[in-house]
Amino acid sequence: MRDIDTEKEERILTFIESMASGNTEFLNALEKEALGEGVPIIRTQTRSLLRFLLELVKPEKILEVGTATGFSACLMLNYAPAKASVTTIERDPERIAKAREHFAMIDEDPSCMPGHRSGQITLLEGDAASILKKLEGPYDFVFMDAAKGQYIHFLPEVVRVLAPGGLLVSDNIFKDGEILESRFAVKRRDRTIHKRMREYLQALTERDDLQTLLLEEGDGAALSIRKK
Prior knowledge:
By secondary structure, the protein is an alpha/beta fold. The chain has helices spanning about 1-20, 25-35, 45-55, 70-80, 95-110, 130-135, 150-160, 190-205, and strands spanning about 60-65, 85-90, 120-125, 140-145, 160-170, 210-215, 220-225. It is about 45% helix and about 20% strand.
């Protein structure tokens, strides 16, 4: 029965992904490059979720914790209102350099992202824990997609800069299903991340100033609204 259920879930997922709207040629090129270089980017379901939420919330100020090579920052700017701005944080030098190359393309070829300029994206270099403490906000929309073991440490400052009524989207909260397992069923090297992610989910759902919904999309996503 379990194998049948798993097969059915996979067929449903394949069907859902087949119905997803495609991205622009520019975003497809960034995705192809990232995958070719082994750089993880947001999954198809998560992209669809972000596009839907951006259309719903229409944020003017977006904060991303975890730039990687800039794919998700470009995606969010592309589907956000024309005057929106994205502030994104990254500490890895190689990924920072690649992200800056990608952001520069927006100006070099206006067809990459019509109506937007690279100046709408601000890339802050360094440790997110330190940078977040210096940000003033408020941000209407925050996308958390950095080191999973650090989510719990980033949360207080992220909530501080999140506008009342603003939306926090936390990606990859299930870690390919590992978060559902007992701590002792997880590889020893992953136990700290396992523990911290569980603490993070507990904090999201127990904070009085947040209303949180956990979703299965992609590798799991948490949607948290800061109460007004």
